[in-house]
Amino acid sequence: MKKIISTVALAVLTCGFSYAQENVTVKMNVKVEGLPPEYAGFGEQEIVNSIKGDKHKSEMSSMMGSNITVFDGKKLTSLNEQMGSKTGYTATKEEMDADKAKDKAKETKPKIEYTTDKKTIAGYECTKAIVTSVGKDKKENKMTVWVTDKIKTPESGKSGNRRGMMDLGDLKGYPLEMEMSANQQGMDMKIMVTTSEVSTAPIDDSVFNVSTDGYKMSTYAEYKAEMKKMEDAQKAASGK
Predict the structure, then answer these.
(1) Is 125 a domain residue?
(2) Distance of alpha carbon 103 from alpha carbon 218, whole angstroms
């Protein structure tokens, strides 16, 4: 469930590892409609993305816990805290690039349809686009995205950890608002991500230093193996 809810929120990371701007901080809010009471704590999340050159930090927080993901240009560190459990993993840029190459060979590139609709979000003019991708279940997934070309995301910057994230393909610019529908275990949900603030104030390098003390850390290979085990268990439970 948490993976589905986080999919749209984490989509911004597929564009977030290198920027033309030297400093960018983007604050976003996530709202999920249609959740059962036991998952209500995931219904609202806050995200802060801090970018300085090829360094990136994403902080997600909700009533149920938090996640911090940092990419320092060479290595990604992901720390997750949920209900008192603190786990994490690290991955090198080479490991993530290798995964990206495999995914690219297997998956169909998302289709992007730009419209003429415009609106201003957090002071930036955005264009409405429809991103259509095909999931592992062969079903089409559509996302409405409002994107600005004033925050640049060059091709060299699209080498982030895409596993478990919505692929925005060759979307030109940075998504400041996203909306999609999802169905998990028979429940229809609506997921919305909205930017509340964009800042270009200087960011100190210390922002990208994180401590792993108290976390049970895994390698990237161990993390992927655990994710596959969870996916297989979900498939078995659903009878697929």
Answers:
(1) no
(2) 22
Tally of domains in the chain:
1
Domain containing 218 equals 2-108+154-165+182-238
Nearest to 165 by CA among 195, 194, 133: 133
pLDDT at 86 over 70: yes
What's the length of the chain? 240
| CB hemisphere CA count around 171 (13 angstroms) | 33
- pTM of full prediction above 0.85: no
Residue 12 is encoded by which pair of tokens?
Answer: 């911004």
3-state helix, strand, coil in the chain (%, to 5): 25, 45, 30
Residue 234 has pLDDT above 50, yes or no: yes
Asked whether the predicted pLDDT for residue 6 surpasses 60, the reply is no
Which pLDDT score is estimated for 2?
Answer: 52
CATH number at residue 88: 2.50.20
